[in-house]
Structure formats: C-alpha cells, structure tokens
Amino acid sequence: MGSKVITQDIRAFWNSRAGLGLWAGTRDVIAKQLEIEAISAHVHDGMRILDVGCGNGITAIELARRYNVNVTGIDFAEEMVTAAETMVAGQHLRGAVRFQVGDVQNLPIFSEKFDLIYTERALINLPDWPTQKQAIINITDLLVDQGLYVMCENSLDSLDKINSLRERVGLPKITPPWHNHYFHDAEVQQTKFPGVKLEGVRFFSSTYHLLSRVVNAWLAAQDGKEPDYEAPLNQLALQLPPIGDLGQGKIWLWRKVDEIIPTKAHDTTELTGQDITFESLISSVLWESAGWIDWTALCRDEEKSPPDG
Predict the structure, then answer these.
(1) Which of 12-16, 39-43, 276-280 has the lowest mean pLDDT?
(2) Full residue range of the structural domain in which residue 85 is found
(3) Residues 186-196: what's their mean pLDDT?
(4) Number of structural domains found in the chain
(5) Predicted TM-score (pTM) of this structure
(6) How far is CA 296 from the centre of its chain?
(7) 54, 204, 208, 288: most buried, per Cβ within 10 A?
(8) From edge to edge, which strands make up the β-sheet containing 114-120?
C-alpha cells in the first residue's frame, strides 16, 4: 500500500473521531492531561504559538485560556478543524486562538514565524522516519531565533521497556496502533537538523505509564477485568513526579540557534525539583498496591542502576 493511500486512511480515521469531544485524540484522558501540563511548562505570555496537528483543539484552547498568547492550530483532518472551531466558540480566553486546515508535509505560508511550536502525537501519524525527519525540518524552519519546538511524541524504546515489565508479570505486549510509527530514540537524538540543537529530553509520562500500563493493568487482570483509564491508581500519577524512562510519551526540545555550539551531552534529566529516587517511589507507592510482587526488583533488573529523577 502506497504512502498516499495510507495518509488518506489515517485522515479518514481522524475525521471519524472528530465528534468524540475529550476522547477525540485518545481515550486516555489522564495521559492527555499530562501532555498539556508538560507542554504548558514551556509557554509564557506574549508568545506566538503554532500547534501542528491540533486535532479538535483541546490543547490549543487550554493554552489560550491560561496565557495571553496567540495560538494557531492546524490539522490535516478537516472534520477535526471544524470540531475545534465549534469547541472554541463562546470560550473565555486570555489569549487568542484560530484554526485552519494544514498538513505538516506541506505547511501553510505564515506571515510571521513562531516563538514556540509543538506537536502532540502528531508526527507518529507519518509513515516512516524519513518522512518524520523532513517534518521536523519543516517545523523548525518556522521558528524565530531562539524559538522552541516542543516535540511531544511517542518512543518505541520506552514502550519496549514497559512491555518488558508487562511480560514479567504475565501481561501481553502493547503494540502501537495501526496508524502510528513510533520514534526510535537513537534516530532522533543522533540526527543533525539544520539550525536547531536538541536542548533536552523530558520523560514526563514515565511514572504514569508504569502505574497505568503495568501496576493497574496487573491489578485489573487479577480481577478478570479490563484496565480502567480513570482508576484511582492512574489518577495518583498526576500527583507524582516523573521518574525514570518508562513512558512512551516523551518531549524532545529543539532550540533554534544561529550557530550550533557542540556540547558534552544532551540534557536528558527530568527536572522535578524533588530529591526522590526511582526505588523509593516504587517501594512507597507500588508495594502497597501490588502486594507480594517485588516491583523494585523488577525495575532494578530492567535498569541496572536507578534512573535519574
């Protein structure tokens, strides 16, 4: 099947979900909330922002509600754009937001460049890494000097780590949806993109995916039930800092610069502001929830030393 046919199928899929409101982009509303919080950490008043792959506009509208910013949202699914326009009608916003049809593979011409651009599980809808790589180039070309691209996408490497833990407790592997091509971390971080540098990687969803996709899923399996996305254990993750690198959702931060200055290493730490270790989180939270399973030992086997918090 050619990439053009695949793209048409993916567009049709997202158009079919445009009327689902909060569930249009994902059934996992808590994961969506984590994404919004992680993206908004890089937003401040006065910014000109582009949301590439805005869906029905939930994130763009929320940013304009919180901040005095000017947000443009684009999506290649026409029904999603219509839903976004309907959703924003009558909203009381601090900033401004508008929506239009647009494709990351052929971006519209804008009159000005942007202080911040973000994608939120948008580039994983492209068919392969070469296409994704060109999309990153297209996006970062629209940044002002020192502008920031917040690339909130899914990592296959981190999903593999979660699946390794799931297998150890008798849970089946999670496979990416048919319409998604998850990123390989090495491909992203070893590629040089013109005019930008990789400023850091944020593992914002790590704690949530450990709790929801391993612990809560195991507890549900013991009762013969399907996991509930709204389970109390999943909601607990909203109150906990991200620990380790176990979440398929990651943020790669790309900074627009005139001259790339070599650095010793990319900043891949998660800045939590708390002195908390991976093992202390497991022992204090998961042991009580999961009973006899030694989650600390499981994670120690996966990561020979505790990941940085």
Answers:
(1) 276-280
(2) 3-156+178-206+242-270
(3) 96
(4) 1
(5) 0.85
(6) 26
(7) 54
(8) 96-101, 70-75, 48-52, 114-120, 143-154, 249-256, 196-202
